[in-house]
Write a structure and sequence with these properties.
- The chain contains 9 helices and 16 strands.
- It is an alpha/beta fold.
- The strands form 4 sheets. It has an 8-stranded mixed β-sheet with strand order 1-2-4-3-5-16-6-15. Strands 10-12-8-13 form a 4-stranded antiparallel β-sheet, covered by helices on one side. Strands 7-14 form a two-stranded antiparallel sheet.
- It is elongated and about 85 Å long.
- Its cofactor is Mn(2+).
- GO terms for molecular function: hydrolase activity; metal ion binding.
């Protein structure tokens, strides 16, 4: 196998330019119209024939013959105010690429163009001795940030049909640029939204015995339910219920008639995710029962964990070792965050790795924050890994 760093270098400036352009013009889930146009235009300039999805997003095949590998990027931004001060900072107030999807998009666009140039012999990297019959499908997915995720649209529209395996990446500011994080098995968690609404007879705070005190009941649910779940669900599942919103009443001397509590339930285990809904209904009902309030539980199913399949993870790691060296691979911990690539890995075998975006000795940013500023050198790293993995998939299928 040839090292493909020189071929990546020929395309890298264009990939970085596209990243800066879509970073400056971020678009929310299912509204990525300009982003989709830019991706399609860039692919067409290189002679590729991309396909637009029904709303936003696109996909393109490189090569000929049966599909041997899918590569996925997500393209949407977040409703977050950018605070980086970059010359190409977001021009849309309150919208920013604070999760690195602009990096993902640039990596996959650069990979598609690099692969096309390799297969059509437009680069000096020698591949003539390799049997590269087969197709790589590169998918630019909309709406990863909108539960239950735009990957369900990819599946519904048949884009995964005949794709035997798929790989993806996610920017990670906890890893230095030039390194990646990998893990066999679940690498993210299931993420659900929980909303509890209580109603009861309100009244004056001087006579709580004449009321159905929703404030006190909410407080008991907020404190007791997470602790009870820890005793009812296998601790190895990593079930975690965390409240982010609680609201009831307005006056200090009046017990209100209604109140709300909302949070997220995250589980590391698929079986626990499947059983959590019934258990939550039971536990919340029991905690609220002594106060005589009515309970309405809304359990909004999010996404299951992304479960990395070993052969696909091996493909990523082999490509990384060959291009960057064995010391560039680190063990990634399982994240409590959700990722809708999980729907794809439920359809076909797949794997996602963590792409380091932290500048060595530089600040450590966090995802979903307005100051997130990834090191752009990660784009070339991701392109090398994906392109090398694609070549290996083509050779292995020949």
């Amino acid at each position: 196998m040839p090292r493909i760093a020189p071929a990546v270098e020929e395309v890298l400036a264009e990939a970085i330019s596209l990243r800066r352009d879509i970073h400056q013009h971020p678009e929310l889930s299912f509204r990525e119209f300009r982003t989709t146009d830019q991706i399609i235009a860039a692919l067409q300039r290189h002679g590729l024939k991309p396909h637009r999805l029904e709303s936003t997003g696109a996909w393109v095949d490189i090569g000929s013959g049966p599909i041997v590998l899918g590569i996925r990027a997500d393209i949407d931004a977040l409703p977050v105010k950018e605070e980086t001060g970059l010359p190409y900072a977001s021009v849309h107030d309150g919208i920013a690429h604070a999760c690195g999807h602009d990096i993902h998009t640039a990596v996959c666009l650069g990979t598609a163009i690099t692969l096309h140039r390799l297969l059509t012999r437009q680069t000096t990297v020698p591949v003539d001795h390799l049997d590269l019959t087969g197709r790589i499908r590169v998918i630019f997915q909309p709406a990863e940030e909108k539960i239950p995720g735009g990957s369900l649209e990819i599946i519904r529209q048949g884009v995964l049909q005949d794709v035997p395996r798929i790989i993806a990446l996610h920017a990670d500011p906890s890893f230095n640029v030039g390194t990646i994080g990998t893990r066999i098995g679940a690498i993210t968690s299931a993420t659900d939204t929980i909303r509890v609404t209580l109603t009861g007879r309100g009244g004056h705070t001087s006579r709580p015995q004449q009321t159905q005190d929703v404030v006190y009941a909410l407080a008991q649910i907020a404190a007791q339910v997470p602790a009870i779940l820890e005793r009812r669900i296998d601790v190895r599942s990593g079930a975690q219920l965390t409240w982010g919103h609680i609201q009831a009443g307005h006056a200090p001397n009046a017990i209100p008639a209604t109140g709300q509590l909302a949070g997220t339930l995250r589980t590391l285990d698929v079986d626990a995710w499947d059983s959590a809904s019934e258990l939550l209904d039971e536990v919340i009902g029991h905690v609220a029962a002594p106060y005589g309030v009515k309970v309405h539980l809304e359990h909004i199913r999010g996404v299951p964990p992304v479960v990395n399949n070993e052969p696909e993870m091996d493909l990523i790691e082999d490509a990384t070792r060959f291009e960057l060296g064995s010391r560039t691979i680190e063990l990634a911990s399982q994240s409590m965050g959700g990722e809708d690539f999980a729907w794809m890995t439920k359809q076909v075998p797949g794997a996602m790795f963590r792409l380091g975006t932290r500048t060595p000795s530089g600040p450590t940013y966090d995802l979903h924050q307005g100051d997130y500023n990834p090191d752009e050198r990660a784009i070339g790293v991701g392109m090398q890994i994906f392109t090398q993995a694609a070549l290996r998939a083509l050779v292995g299928a020949a």
